[in-house]
């Protein structure tokens, strides 16, 4: 295995907000197999506050819920059920990162040091000709194969990119490249990913490693394929009977009972969002749908979020979903289904008119006549660039066509 060098160089600067000191930090989530997951943060401090900003490529995630307890910190990460528990050291902090999963809490060691940097590779004059699109094949531990499209770009000495799949994208990846090798990583509070690969003499990416969480590892290879398109229809739900109408009633975050057949939704175009507060792609989609709803509500369009959480505890679920509502100023109803995302009968219990839910997020488009007109799986978020813009155009085109249909 190629040696991976992690580095943090001390950099001191000044943030423009309130003239607060602005310090770069390098965080390393430790895995026993050596595939450490590195990401960057910035710390902004005043006499009365401390704010951290997680950086991945163009993404910035602000973390402001930080409790100081003597020489210790409890850092509550936004959006997701996750936190750092840290003690201060002479060079930064050390402790654990914990997050909720469908099987319980997962904890990993983390070190955070003041300094800049992410990954480093042995210096060489050769650069990896890696920009553009690639057809990727993942090999899972159980032998199953998965297909994705990777897209990479270079800014200065930084490698940026993402992987697109039928169920969503891997969001903002950042790393480095040199010689015949590449390294990438990301951290968004609940997902911690590491990618590496080598460019062969035949121009293929080989010996690829994808590591996530404490132990999960997949192998991957890739060949150049700019024209490759991801077929989301393989993961999309379908209505079982074209004449069927959805029929559900669940509680919203304020305890009100809301159903698809309420007067509020009759004669309107409705988008049903299948989501969960644990899902980063759902976070991206919620941000888009919230902005969209502000623009289209006056045109006779409604949105309903159906949440499938890690827990059946309604109080815990409401707390997690309320973070989404407040962060993205969500004004459409978000309903707690009371069914977990891992429940094998979740679709039968909540949307029996549909084929099984395969992707979070997913969307169901309902016409003014109350009939299911279209479905969509996954979400190509901001990290996918042109694909994100193409999705937004297609989405609004579908909505406009449904809005313009006459109501018989």
What descriptors fit this protein?
408 residues; mainly beta; Lipocalin; Glutaredoxin; ten-stranded antiparallel β-sheet; eight-stranded antiparallel barrel; 26 strands; 42% strand; disordered N terminus
Secondary-structure map with pairings?
Elements (H helix, E strand, L loop, with lengths): L11 E3 L6 E9 L7 E9 L4 E7 L2 E5 L1 E5 L2 E5 L5 E7 L3 E10 L2 E11 L17 E8 L5 E11 L2 E8 L2 E2 L3 E6 L2 E7 L4 E8 L5 E8 L3 E9 L24 E4 L4 E3 L9 E7 L4 H17 L4 E7 L6 H14 L6 E3 L9 H5 L11 E5 L5 E6 L8 H18 L5
Parallel strand pairs: 22-23, 23-24
Antiparallel strand pairs: 1-2, 2-3, 2-10, 3-4, 4-5, 6-7, 7-8, 8-9, 9-10, 11-12, 11-19, 12-13, 13-14, 13-15, 15-16, 16-17, 17-18, 18-19, 20-21, 20-24, 22-25, 25-26
């Amino acid at each position: 295995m190629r040696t991976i060098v992690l580095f943090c160089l001390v950099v001191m600067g000044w943030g423009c907000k309130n003239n607060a000191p602005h310090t770069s930090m390098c965080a390393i989530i430790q895995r026993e197999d050596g595939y450490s997951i590195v990401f960057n943060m910035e710390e902004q401090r005043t006499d009365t506050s401390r704010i951290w900003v997680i950086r991945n490529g163009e993404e910035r995630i602000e973390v402001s819920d930080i409790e100081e307890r003597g020489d210790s910190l409890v850092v509550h990460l936004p959006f997701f059920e996750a936190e750092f528990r840290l003690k201060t050291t002479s060079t930064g902090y050390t402790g654990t990162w914990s997050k909720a999963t469908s099987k319980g809490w997962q904890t990993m060691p983390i070190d955070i040091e003041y300094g800049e940097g992410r990954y480093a590779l042995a210096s060489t004059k050769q650069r990896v000709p890696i920009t553009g699109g690639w057809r990727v094949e993942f090999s899972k531990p159980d032998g199953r194969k998965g297909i994705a499209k990777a897209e990479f770009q270079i800014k200065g000495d930084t490698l940026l990119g993402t992987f697109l799949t039928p169920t969503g994208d891997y969001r903002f990846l950042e790393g480095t490249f040199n010689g015949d090798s590449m390294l990438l990583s990301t951290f968004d509070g609940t997902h911690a990913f590491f990618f590496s690969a080598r460019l062969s003499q035949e121009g293929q990416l080989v010996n690829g490693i994808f590591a996530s969480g404490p132990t999960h590892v997949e192998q991957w290879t890739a060949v150049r394929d700019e024209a490759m398109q991801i077929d989301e229809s393989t993961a999309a739900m379908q209505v079982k009977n074209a004449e069927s109408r959805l029929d559900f009633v669940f509680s919203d975050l304020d305890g009100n009972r809301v159903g698809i057949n309420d007067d509020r939704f009759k004669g309107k175009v409705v988008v049903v969002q299948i989501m969960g507060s644990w899902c980063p792609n759902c976070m991206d989609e919620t941000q888009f749908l919230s902005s969209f709803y502000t623009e289209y509500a006056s045109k006779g369009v409604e949105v309903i979020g159906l949440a499938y959480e890690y827990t059946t505890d309604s109080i815990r679920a409401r707390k997690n979903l309320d973070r989404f509502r407040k962060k993205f100023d969500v004004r459409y109803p978000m309903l707690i289904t009371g069914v977990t995302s891992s429940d094998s009968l979740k679709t039968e219990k909540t949307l029996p008119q549909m084929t099984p839910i395969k992707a979070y997020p997913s969307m169901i488009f309902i016409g003014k006549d109350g009939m299911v007109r279209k479905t969509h799986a996954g979400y190509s978020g901001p990290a996918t660039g042109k694909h994100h813009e193409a999705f937004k155009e297609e989405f609004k085109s579908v909505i406009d066509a449904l809005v313009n249909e006459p109501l018989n």
